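Q: What changes when biotinyl-5-AMP is included in the input?
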Amino acid sequence: MKEAILNLLKKNNDDFLSGQIISEKLNVSRTSIWKHINILKKDGYIIDSSSKKGYKLISSPDILTYEEIKDHLHTKYIGKNFLHFDTIDSTNTEAKRLADNGEPCGTVIVSEEQNTGHGRLGRAWISPKYKGIWVSIILRPEVNPIKVPKITQVGAASMINALKSLKIDAQVKWPNDIIINHKKICGILTEMSAELNRVHYVVMGIGINANLDKEDFSEDVFKKATSLKIETGSKIDRKLLIANFLNEFEELYSEFSTNSTVKKSIDICKKNSAIIGRDIKIISDGVETYARAIDISEEGQLVVKYQDGSIKNLISSEISVRGLNEYI
Ligand code: BT5
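A: The predicted holo structure follows.
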């Protein structure tokens, strides 16, 4: 009901709308409208109420509910089932719980804050309230589980395109980071539930440091990480960015869901790579080796050339990649 009232207020172009009209249009009592208006106010909407003129929407809060992003969202199925939380342990964990209970492909889970957001290998992911975009998507691809890591490349390419639509240039640091000025602004965590040759579901989680300030990071993380706000000098429109990301994701993911290839995404990741053509340090099981990154294969693996001339394809789950002197 509160969504329906909000829609009417939004459509009314910042003008007063009488309680009588709302009540007729939605077939609810004036008291019920008043109650829902109060809930909207608690959610952060500024609404002018006048006993004579009715209600007028003054401003909407910076929150990532479906209602707030739907005008920018042009997807067919990604985000049609949309769950928004004020606070949660981790959107990936919630997505897995929901997927276990049969929630459909394309379900999007967003939270304004995460208490135990995590990265790969159980690393903590700082997720302060209203400052970032902490989102997970449930996917149900009918592919061999071995192909699933490619979805991370689809996520990375979608984010590069979404950032470009906001006129922000960023690079992909294979396999799962997006970086600006040598620092990380976004990370992707793809998890799955599968049998040996059948995927039950995949959860692709993505964390974007949109409007975090320096104080939001620990000293240690700030050495490697930054936010879009810090790098661009201005506050990012989180609603637009998440919607553009979901739009791009649906488009690029269709290649994967139809024939399990991700050529378009790989092309975008290659064109915007932070590491191809550069000497890198590869960390695997605590052991460091050095090589030159030369390509990303069609399977989404990083192709590297060692000093002895040998060439190897690296699989994302096994390793971390670093620049020689900095994060990248
Ligand atoms: C990742 O892990 O980059 C994947 C992060 C995925 C986070 C999203 S948020 C929505 C969804 N729900 C979750 O619980 N997770 C996903 P990894 O490659 O392990 O990188 C972790 C490293 O990134 C840290 O050790 C830091 O160095 C750096 N980093 C950059 N921004 C950070 C941030 N906001 N919080 C923590 N670490 C950050």
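Observations recorded in class: Residues 90 and 117 are 5 Å apart (CA to CA).
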